[in-house]
Write a structure and sequence with these properties.
The structure is a single chain. The protein has about 450 residues and is an alpha/beta fold. Strands 1, 2, 3, 4, 5, 6, 7, 8, 9 and 12 form a ten-stranded mixed beta sheet that branches. The protein has a two-stranded antiparallel sheet with strand order 10-11. Helix 8 packs across helix 12. The longest helix is centred in the middle third of the chain and has 26 residues.
Length: about 450
């Protein structure tokens, strides 16, 4: 499959399409991901210890018997938020497994929210669909999942969202929910929530709010809005963030008044989401140090959104994101010094557990480093000296492994960094030096994967 789309990876790090910044980032990324020379294969005792700790998976596909996920249940324990990663951003097997795991956690452990790396307002539109059947799902996905988020407009997530809607039709008193934790875009719905609440409870402040939000409400498609925002002058982006900050403070200062406190809480969160979007762009993308700050800000904001949702709705959350965003240790500390998983562990303690995903060989979709063409990429078996080369020697083809409980000498092997496949939306990418047991609590290893099927836009 080959198609051209207006996409960059990620929007923070590729503000300019060409020139010194892109060259710098590609150079930094390659330097950071270059691992040490391949080392000798680990002693057979390491593989034997991994064998003893591994629990086989029957399939990645949703539906059918889920007793093989019982081991994962025990590993998750009493966690209230579970991060489930992916080693590529566009492989069917990772998406299908998330569908299967979420359905199982809903039925067996009381999870009720699926969170995805999409903007907050996108999540609200999809939540309205799964809760109330509002809107046409395919159109919502087409409208919202553009540019950096088009990877989620695939047949696997379409199936998951349809299942969530069907579940809610059967269980109207105990529904599942959908949330988006990312901040690249705040759709018109977020502005409506804030402005409508203020008009109803503090009409005297509406004029000031409208002045602060002047020119910010999107009037163009999602992808176009992101592209145009990034290309505004730095001073203009700073001024926009200053205004969203004032608007947030205005909503906070006015309080709920005599209105519904629940409506106020959601309006305040929408004002917060709008402010986070503006602040995400209020960094100097010509300065590598500020790019790193922007990346850290994004991960912190995503974590804060997840924590707010969990605490406000009272639901257990399965969080879907790239391995790098659910993990504790960044794959590239130069450009992304602190990641979402680390923030979530700080906020939730043992209430957060993460699951990294790995694969030995297979295919995925990705653009090139300097183009916008999506191609199906295929990788052969993992290289000697890599984490995956050893993981694939375990007797089970697909399995789940509690990295915290592995016995020696596997325990020591798992805590040493070595080359690991971590691929985002552009390729080549990585490998990165990852110490599995330092980054994840649990690991799922798949022998092979196939590229996801993206939906026609």
């Amino acid at each position: 499959m080959v198609c051209a789309v207006p996409v960059r990876k990620p929007w923070i790090m590729t503000w300019q399409r060409t020139g010194s910044l892109l060259t710098l980032l590609v150079t930094v990324g390659v330097a950071a991901s270059a691992g040490p020379p391949a080392t000798a294969a680990p002693a057979p005792a390491v593989v034997e210890a991994l064998d003893r700790a591994a629990h086989p998976l029957r399939t990645v596909e949703p539906g059918g018997d889920t007793r093989d996920l019982g081991a994962l249940d025990r590993m998750i324990g009493g966690a209230r938020v579970v991060g489930l990663g992916e080693a590529t951003h566009s492989s069917h097997d990772f998406f299908a497994l998330k569908d299967r795991v979420f359905g199982h956690l809903v039925e067996e452990k009381g999870f009720r929210t699926f969170a995805l790396e999409v903007p907050w307002s996108t999540g609200l539109r999809l939540d309205d669909y799964v809760l109330k059947g509002e809107g046409d799902l395919r159109r919502i996905m087409r409208d919202e999942l553009q540019r950096d988020f088009l990877w989620w407009n695939n047949t696997d997530y379409l199936r998951l969202l349809e299942w969530m809607r069907a579940y809610n039709v059967r269980h109207p008193g105990d529904p599942v929910r959908f949330m988006g934790d990312d901040i690249a875009w705040s759709g018109p719905e977020s502005y409506d929530a804030v402005e409508d609440h203020m008009a109803a409870t503090h009409p005297g402040a509406s004029a000031r709010l409208a002045e602060l939000y002047r020119g910010l409400r999107p009037t163009v498609p999602t992808g176009t809005y992101i592209e145009q925002y990034m290309n505004r002058p730095y001073a203009e982006r700073m001024e926009m963030a200053h205004r969203t900050g004032e608007a947030l403070e205005l909503v906070r200062r006015q309080g709920p008044g005599t209105g519904d406190r629940e409506a106020y809480a959601w309006a305040l969160q929408s004002a917060t989401a709008i402010d986070r979007t503006a602040r995400q762009y209020a960094f100097d993308f010509e300065d590598p140090a500020e790019i790193a700050e922007a990346m850290t800000y994004r991960d912190g904001a995503m974590a804060a959104n997840v924590v707010w949702w969990h605490e406000h709705t009272g639901t257990k959350v399965l969080l879907s994101a790239h391995n790098n965003h659910v993990g504790y240790v960044p794959e590239d500390p130069v450009t992304n010094p602190k990641v979402q998983g680390a923030y979530l562990r700080e906020s939730l303690g043992a209430g957060y557990v993460n699951v990294g995903l790995a694969f030995d060989h297979g295919s995925f979709n990705a653009t090139g480093r300097e183009d916008t063409v999506i191609r199906r990429r295929t990788l052969g078996p993992a290289a000697p000296g890599s984490n995956e080369r050893t993981l694939d020697r375990v007797r089970h083809q697909d399995y789940v492994l509690d990295l915290r409980a592995a016995g020696p000498p596997a325990r020591q092997w798992l805590r040493r960094a070595r080359p690991t496949r971590q691929i985002g939306t552009a390729y080549p990418d990585g490998p990165y030096d990852i110490a599995l047991a330092r980054s994840y609590d649990v690991l799922v290893h798949l022998h092979d994967v196939v590229a996801a099927r993206l939906r026609d836009r």
